[in-house]
Design goal:
14% strand, Spore Coat Polysaccharide Biosynthesis Protein SpsA, Chain A, 4-stranded mixed β-sheet, 8 helices, 226 residues, 7 strands, alpha/beta
C-alpha cells in the first residue's frame, strides 16, 4: 500500500523536518526496500508482488522503483479502510487465494515476518493475520475472504486501529493470527528509530531487513561517504 513518491505529496510529516525532496527520496527507498523484502520470499511458494498505489497517473514513477514482475493496482475509495477493502476484494477476485497488504513505511520489515504471515494465512480455516505496529495501527493485514466488518467503525490514523480491528474480528468470530510488532516511519521520532536500528543501536527492533536503499539514502542525507 503506497503513495507514489512525489515532493510535497509524500511523507508530509517527515518533510516538515527534512524537506519535501528528501522526504520523497526516502519514501522511494522505502518502497524499493519493501519490494526487496517481498522478492526475498521464494517464488516456489506461489507469491506475487503488487503495488496498491495512488494517485492515478503515477505508474511510470512506480515502474522505475519496483521489480518488473510486480503488478500495479490502483487504490480505490476515499479513506484507508476503503482502500484496504478494495485491494483485498480486487486481488481475490483476480484469482489469488489470499492477500497480504503491507504498508509502504517499514523499509526494514523482516522477510521472515512476511513468510510467517503467508504460512499462517494458508493454514486450513478462515482467519485474519495482523502485524501490530508500534503506533497502535498495523503494518500488515492478511485475508482470504474480504470481511467488510474488519474495516468498519475504525478511526483510521489513531492509536486504536489495531485494537478496534481485533474487536471487529471478535464480533464476527474470526480467528486472529498475530505477527511480531514492528514500526512505521512517519515522523522525526520514528526516523530516529530507523537510524538506530540500521546502525545496530536499537534495543526494541532487531533482526530487521538490510534496507540497503534506505541506509544509503540516510548516509547521503547525513553527508557520510558512500
Amino acid at each position: 500500500m503506497c503513495k507514489a513518491p512525489q515532493p510535497g505529496r509524500t511523507k508530509t510529516r517527515l518533510a516538515a523536518n527534512i524537506g519535501p525532496t528528501a522526504a520523497a527520496e526516502l519514501s522511494a527507498c522505502f518502497l524499493r526496500d519493501l519490494a526487496a523484502a517481498i522478492d526475498a520470499i521464494p517464488h516456489a511458494i506461489g507469491r506475487r508482488g503488487f503495488a496498491v498505489y495512488a494517485p492515478a497517473g503515477a505508474e511510470p514513477i512506480l515502474r522505475r522503483l519496483l521489480p518488473p514482475e510486480f503488478g500495479l493496482f490502483l487504490q480505490q475509495g476515499q479513506h484507508l479502510g476503503e482502500a484496504l477493502l478494495g485491494a483485498t476484494r480486487g486481488l481475490l477476485a483476480a484469482g489469488h487465494g489470499s492477500v497480504l497488504l503491507v504498508n509502504g513505511d517499514s523499509p526494514s520489515l523482516p522477510s521472515k515476518f512476511l513468510l510467517q504471515a503467508i504460512e499462517t494465512l494458508r493454514a486450513p480455516g478462515d482467519r485474519v493475520v495482523l502485524g501490530p505496529a508500534s503506533d497502535g495501527g498495523y503494518y500488515l493485514i492478511g485475508l482470504k475472504v474480504p470481511h467488510e466488518r474488519l474495516f468498519s467503525d475504525i478511526d483510521w490514523g489513531t492509536a486504536s486501529v489495531f485494537r478496534r480491528t481485533c474487536e471487529r474480528a471478535g464480533e464476527i468470530g474470526l480467528e486472529v493470527g498475530m505477527l511480531p510488532e514492528w514500526y512505521d516511519v512517519d515522523d522525526e521520532e520514528t526516523l530516529g528509530w530507523l537510524r538506530d536500528e540500521l546502525a545496530g543501536r536499537s534495543t526494541r527492533f532487531r533482526g530487521g531487513g538490510a534496507a540497503a536503499f534506505t541506509k544509503a539514502c540516510l548516509a547521503k542525507m547525513a553527508g557520510e561517504p558512500g
